[in-house]
């Protein structure tokens, strides 16, 4: 009798770094799966059957029984949560937090720069387009800065990014970019340690990549603008009666969407905390004492006892994992996986266009700059497309991860949404009934209302300073 075919399927073309990441994780986990190859040039990702799997029309997509997931990092988390939880730091709160931090650094610091270089140096020639050397040079500079942070992290003290002697998702998430860099002169910038994935897994995936490269073309990588706020204001919120030496500290300013999202999660968790303001106008975030907390020189940073974290989404996961695991899906693997997919959608679909709009319409005018209407119009169009997907999703579910209860997938939007709704482009939300009803539910939550008041107070101070 013939053996039953595996129920797990991965859709996409192996030349994509995002598909290769998912394939590597399946291999590392020893999962029996089918790789369903697709053709980008034939537009397979835009066909109705694929849009039913991934409404954003991208790859990869994973089908695991009745569960359908998109976004490579969400797929990776699901695969490891189910088959190799040790690669997520499962069972160790601090280890899991550090895996999250460095996975977020890969997603929002390493990948945008590396991805832009790969697009220009590898895929542009495949598409018959000349390399944009200005873009290459700009992103090589960014990548050097990120890799200097990696170098310091890995200098003797740690063999792997999340610390210790064991590889994790934080390391494996870089896969595919290392092989791509070996094929062009920028390979001197980066070389992933061979131990970071099994040789058999890497060899198999390299064969898949080379085979796919003969017939498929990829247009590149997800992009992300890091929105940096400037403030000299200060807000502090601390639970009464707590020992100040043990109260977790958030370093930053509430007017930053990234800080605001962390504060919302702390408020949702009912956790005591202190908001420690930084003088952003004086670039205190680049001062040595803050670089010791966050080597990237950004906000927020978070101290919880002896544990120091950065990257807002990693901090949010830690806070909720410790205090409100139900907001991460609790013990339900399918809900956790769906939550991860829509949290990644916030990071890589919603956040980039929304943050570009805020930079042009809020941040630049506040510091005396002018709006570039072309950039605004382009990103409003992108944001409308994302919110159309949200509207269809929310026509069936009250919240993005499904069901009747909010989760991190919803709360991750709060920082940007609070600022966006204060601009004329809040109308892109108002125009979509399901999205508007969803946001109204989120905005009415006591935790969100409390943080919104902090944000409003800081923005008012900033507006007064910029006009004075």
Fold topology:
Layout: E1 8-11, H1 17-28, E2 33-36, H2 48-53, E3 61-64, E4 67-70, H3 72-83, H4 93-126, H5 133-153, H6 169-172, H7 177-181, H8 199-213, E5 249-251, H9 257-269, E6 274-276, H10 288-291, E7 301-304, E8 307-310, H11 312-323, H12 333-366, H13 373-394, H14 408-411, H15 414-420, H16 427-430, H17 433-443, H18 446-467
Helix pairs in contact: 1-3, 1-8, 3-12, 4-5, 4-11, 9-11, 9-15, 9-18, 12-13, 12-15, 13-17
Give the strand line-up of the largest sheet.
2-1-3-4
What oligomeric arrangement do these chains adopt?
single chain
The CATH architecture of the largest domain would be Up-down Bundle
Structural class by sheet pairing and helices: alpha/beta
Mean pLDDT: 86
Features:
single chain; 468 residues; alpha/beta; Glutaredoxin; Glutathione S-transferase Yfyf (Class Pi), Chain A, domain 2; four-stranded mixed β-sheet; 52% helix
């Amino acid at each position: 009798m013939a053996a039953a075919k595996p129920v797990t399927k991965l859709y996409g073309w192996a030349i994509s770094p995002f598909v290769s990441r998912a394939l590597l994780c399946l291999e590392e986990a020893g999962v029996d799966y089918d790789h369903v190859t697709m053709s980008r040039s034939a537009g397979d990702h835009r066909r109705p059957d694929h849009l039913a799997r991934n409404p954003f029309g991208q790859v990869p997509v994973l089908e695991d029984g009745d569960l359908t997931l998109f976004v490579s990092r969400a797929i990776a988390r699901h695969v490891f949560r189910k088959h190799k939880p040790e690669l997520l730091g499962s069972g160790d709160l601090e280890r899991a937090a550090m895996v999250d931090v460095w996975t977020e650094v890969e997603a929002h610091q390493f990948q945008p720069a590396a991805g832009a270089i790969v697009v220009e140096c590898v895929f542009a020639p495949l598409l018959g387009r000349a390399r944009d050397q200005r873009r290459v040079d700009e992103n090589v500079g960014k990548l050097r800065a990120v890799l200097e942070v990696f170098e310091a992290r890995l200098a003797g003290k740690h063999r792997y990014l999340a610390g210790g002697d064991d590889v994790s998702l934080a390391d494996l998430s870089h896969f595919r970019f290392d092989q791509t860099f070996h094929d062009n002169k920028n390979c001197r910038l980066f070389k992933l340690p061979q131990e970071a994935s099994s040789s058999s897994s890497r060899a198999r995936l390299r064969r898949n990549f080379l085979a796919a490269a003969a017939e498929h073309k990829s247009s590149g990588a997800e992009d992300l603008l890091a929105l940096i706020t400037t403030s000299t204001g200060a807000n502090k919120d601390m639970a009464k009666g707590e020992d100040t030496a043990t109260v977790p500290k958030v370093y930053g300013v509430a007017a930053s969407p990234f800080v605001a999202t962390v504060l919302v999660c702390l408020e949702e968790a009912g956790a005591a905390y202190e908001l420690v303001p930084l003088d952003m106008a004086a670039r205190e975030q680049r001062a040595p004492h803050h670089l010791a907390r966050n080597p990237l020189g950004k906000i927020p940073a978070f101290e919880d006892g002896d544990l120091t974290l950065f990257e807002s989404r990693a901090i949010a996961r830690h806070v909720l994992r410790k205090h409100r695991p139900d907001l991460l899906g609790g013990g339900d693997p399918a809900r956790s996986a769906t939550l991860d997919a829509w949290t990644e959608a916030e990071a890589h679909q919603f956040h980039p266009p929304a943050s570009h709009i805020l930079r042009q319409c809020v941040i630049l005018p506040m510091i005396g700059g002018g709006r570039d209407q072309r950039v605004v119009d382009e990103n409003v169009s992108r944001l409308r497309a994302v919110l159309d997907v949200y509207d269809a999703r929310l026509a069936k579910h009250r919240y993005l991860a499904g069901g009747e209860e909010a989760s991190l997938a919803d709360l991750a939007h709060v920082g940007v949404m609070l600022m966006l709704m204060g601009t004329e482009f809040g109308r892109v939300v108002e125009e979509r009934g399901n999205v508007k009803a969803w946001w109204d539910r989120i905005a009415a939550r006591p935790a969100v209302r409390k943080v919104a008041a902090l944000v409003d107070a800081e923005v008012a101070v900033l507006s007064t300073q910029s006009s004075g």
